[in-house]
Amino acid sequence: MIWVWIVLQGLTLLGVVNYWRNLPVERREEAPDGVVVILSVRDDWDGGAALMARLAAQSAQFRLLITTSGACPAAEALAGDKVQIVHAGVATDEGQKVHKLRAALRALRPDDQWLVFIDADIEPPARLVGRLLFPLVRDKADIVTGYRLLLPRGGLMAAMVGAVEMQLATLPRAANATMPWGGAMALPRAVAKQLDLDAVLAARLSDDMTIGLAGWRAKLRLRPVRDLLVASPLDGPARNLIGFGVRQYRHIATNNLGMWALATVGVSVQAGAWLWALGWGGWSAIAIGYGAAWGRAAVRRQIIDAVLEPDQAKHATRSLWWDCTAPFAVTWAHLIVQVAAATSNHIRWGGWDYWMQRGKVGRMARVAP
To answer: Which CATH class is domain 30-237?
Structure first.
């Protein structure tokens, strides 16, 4: 059993090393005409002064399309030549974010040829738009994506959720075996037309999973931009933090049960192996497990420093605390979240309750105040 344990821990370490070694040295960008950045916000959005400043600092020029449900004073205040506001109304049979994105797609102008999707809670680097566009303009991809890197700003639970997400963020990413993340994703308008994106998103809750699965079925080229691990702050009560983790996996389970099962089996093997190491493996097994964990943490620190700004990196490294002190707890927490995700088809997100049926919204209701 000890040799199986060595192999398992070695593979996890090699996986992180693989991600680090494949970080692009030359982070080339493109800045074509006809770029539109689509941002979905809630009606109580505060205007995102920090986000707007980061968007203004982008190296590529673009038009900003902000889509809301109804009246959003902060969004209306930004309206101008380079900022378009779209009111989608309230959905009745699909995710509210999806509803807003579909309205944005219908509001595109004739010269909008490159579509970039972002979330309101990210801290994007100045290269974000240009880096997403580079593989598209050079015809190296059809759909391009970054991925979130959480910045825990709360207590131990925030750091735990960050550690679980860090496992996913630093997984090796094969060029044609990735799923897009809606917080930083781009595709040409021609691809959106090819997929009939408005119809594909209809009645769905998850925008990025729906687009990713449609891209897979159409045999499109989905590419990750490995240096775009985009900072996303994480804070709040423990209940909300756990709910965040469960919700992410419930999106997967309700859209593609096979994908959820594959991920859960992989984590289950590691969780069971850690149980053996702590209970029956002896000090040598524990030493091997911690040695690999410290190795992963050291490499992840290199990744964090390479892709984030110094202040962001300071917060992101808090996710490594658990990896260094109790790596088994991170794996067990990961498994608990995965299992919990499959116990229900109910997803609470953005002030709404959704009940899923075969990947679509079967019923929805506003969360009571």
So the answer is: alpha beta
Is the four-CA dihedral 101, 106, 111, 113 of positive or negative sign? positive
Which residue, chain included where needed, has tokens 């850690």? 274
DSSP string, 239-289: HHHHHHHHHHHHHHHHH-HHHHHHHHHHHHHHHHHHHHIIIIIHHHHHHHH
| Domain chopping of the chain, boundaries | 30-237
Q: Comparing C-alpha atoms, which of 46, 361, 52 is closest to residue 207?
A: 361
pLDDT tens digits along 248-277:
999 999 999 999 999 999 999 999 999 999
* Bridge partners (DSSP) listed for residue 114: 35, 188
List the one residue out of 97, 94, 103 whose CA is nearest residue 118. Answer: 97
Distance CA 95, CA 202 (A): 9
Do β-strands 63-68 and 114-118 pair in parallel, antiparallel, or remain unpaired?
Answer: unpaired
Structure tokens given for 163: 């550690």
Q: What is the pTM of this model?
A: 0.96
Matching residue, tokens 């088994």: 328
The DSSP secondary-structure symbol of 82 reads T
What is the distance of C-alpha 28 from the center of its chain?
Answer: 22
Taking only the tens place, the pLDDT of each residue in 201-249 is 999 999 999 999 999 999 999 999 999 999 999 999 999 999 999 999 9
* Closest CA relative to residue 78, chosen from 57, 96, 59, 55: 55
**Do 202 and 174 touch, CB atoms closer than 8 A?**
no
Using an 8 Å Cβ cutoff, are 98 and 201 in contact? Answer: yes
